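Subject: design request, 162 residues
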């Protein structure tokens, strides 16, 4: 009983330390603006990040069902850090790249206003799904994130791909 209490306390301290560490500076794409955009690459990066979060959650589940030794605790903490960092990266790409550079505001009386609102709603879905992936270790949350990314993917293809 005492060992599990100590492991739980150590885990809480380590997770708290990871969360308390300062977040890295956002490095959004070209705020000059340079006009050099590779939207399909960004979509690929978002999908890769979502796959990383999925792997982290699956790995955490396996570690929790394992022996519970100190190495499992160490690896769990590392996977939690990766999951947090990757979800934050998704939020930054959506905010710094898509919302500030690619999604252009449309006046409410313009014919494209509905499409603009659709884009905003889909970007918001990614941001909130990434937040949920930070808050939980749940494969349903990861599935929602993947679906949200898939929902915007058709909007951002190379001209020769579409």
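Subject: RE: design request

Done. Sequence follows.
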């Amino acid at each position: 009983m005492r060992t599990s209490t100590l492991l739980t306390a150590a885990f809480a301290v380590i997770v708290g330390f990871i969360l308390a560490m300062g977040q890295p500076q956002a490095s959004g794409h070209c705020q000059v603006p340079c006009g050099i955009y590779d939207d399909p690459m960004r979509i690929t990066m978002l999908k890769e990040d979502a796959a990383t979060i999925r792997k982290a959650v699956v790995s955490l589940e396996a570690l929790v069902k394992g022996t519970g030794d100190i190495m499992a605790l160490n690896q769990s903490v590392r996977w939690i850090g990766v999951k947090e960092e990757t979800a934050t990266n998704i939020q930054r790409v959506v905010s710094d790249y898509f919302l500030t550079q690619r999604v252009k505001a449309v006046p409410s009386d313009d014919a494209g206003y509905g499409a603009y609102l659709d884009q905003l709603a889909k970007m918001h879905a990614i941001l909130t799904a990434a937040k949920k992936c930070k808050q939980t270790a749940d494969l349903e949350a990861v599935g929602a994130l993947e679906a949200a990314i898939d929902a915007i993917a058709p909007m951002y293809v190379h001209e020769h791909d579409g």
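Residues 22-28 have pLDDT under 50 and may be disordered.
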